[in-house]
Amino acid sequence: MSKIGIDIEKAKQILQNGGLVAIPTETVYGLAANALDKDAVLKIFEVKNRPHFDPLIIHTNSLEKAKLWVTEFPKWAEKLANAFWPGPLTILLPKRNIPDIVTSGLEQVALRIPNHRLTLDLLEALDFPLAAPSANPFGYVSPTKPVHVSAQLQDKVDYIMDGGDCEVGIESTIVGMEDGKLCVFRLGGLAIEDIEKVAGKVEIRLNQSSNPKAPGMLKNHYAPKKPLVIGDIASLLKEHSSKKIGVISFKTDFGQKQQQVLSKKGDLSEAAHNLFSAIRTLDDSDVELIVAERFPDDLLGRAINDRLERAAAK
Q: What is the 3-class SS of 113-176, one letter each residue?
């Protein structure tokens, strides 16, 4: 099994030597490698069984460092970075000196500064950025605890940095400029309403295709092994009464043996924090089917619905 700890020097040595380290962030755990080392980045794709056309996000610890890896850092991007970094926001910008394998041959690179002290300390100790998608087999539920990484990747990762549970619990929101308009390409841990307070109106352009412009845009993603359906839970319980059913609800108790209520007080941030762990818990149980309700379509509810829809896609 992979070793778990908080040894920054050990993690640094592994990364410098082309190895893989699972890093904690406020969103989910990432599977990190030296973003400038093509062979190390290739290991990420191999370990995750991730298609090479799905680009990666690179992580660093300061705006000054981030500017080293792009040809320009326009005012709109700097405004957002100053408002939300470190935090669950990824910005797409024209790349500089980043290998094509990281960006899947695209001309833009996805950049962010994660908001986790342990990983920020590690990044500060490195003279290269880290490429780091979620630390799980491709397409499966993203990990929000070190034990999730250990259970799924085992000895395929050289070291797991134990940063505890992820605070936000879903991946970062991805923004970029397209056709002269600020666009959200992936819904995530930063609400659109918060972005619009800083940058004005944004467009939502979720690709959901086999040719993504940004990480996390594939239609079938974040999926459990058990089938998952979305709808009115009471109706779904009647429709599938012959099956063992696991329920994911926002705040309502449906009286089921296998049930995950994401926020009894109706808090969308708490629900987002608990989402992936809830899916995992039910996926590891004896249920035959997972049913989930649709969440309020605002704030982080949009991102929760997005993850559930991708998890349910076949």
A: CCCCHHHHHHHHHCCCCEECCECCCCCCCCCCCHHHHHHHHHHHCCEEECCCCCCCCCCCEEEE
pLDDT given for residue 1 in this prediction: 47
Burial environment of residue 314 by CB neighbours within 10 A (0 to 12, 13 to 18, 19 or more) = exposed
Contact (Cβ atoms closer than 8 angstroms) between residue 10 and residue 158: no
> Crossing angle for the helix pair 8-16 and 117-125, nearest 10 degrees?
50
- pTM for the whole thing? 0.88
C-beta separation of 27 from 170 below 8 A? yes
In angstroms, what CA-CA distances link 101 with 50, 54, 80, 309? Answer: 12, 10, 27, 28
Number of other CB atoms surrounding residue 97 within 10 Å: 11
Residue 146: what are its φ and ψ, rounded to 5°? -60, -35
pLDDT digits (tens, 9 = 90+) for 84-123: 999 999 999 999 999 999 998 899 999 999 999 999 999 9
Q: Do residues 245 and 226 make contact, with C-beta atoms less than 8 angstroms apart?
A: no
Which domains are seen in the chain, by residue range? 3-169 (3.90.870.10), 228-312 (3.40.50.11030)
Cis preceding-peptide flag for 86 (omega within 30 of 0): yes
Contact by Cβ (8 Å): 228, 308: yes
Closest CA to 310 of 231, 221, 228, 224: 221
**Residue 166 vs residues 40, 65, 189: alpha-carbon distances, Å:** 25, 24, 11
Question: Cβ neighbours of residue 96 under 8 Å, at least 6 residues apart?
Answer: 68, 69, 70, 71
The whole-angstrom separation of Cα 292 and Cα 307 is: 11
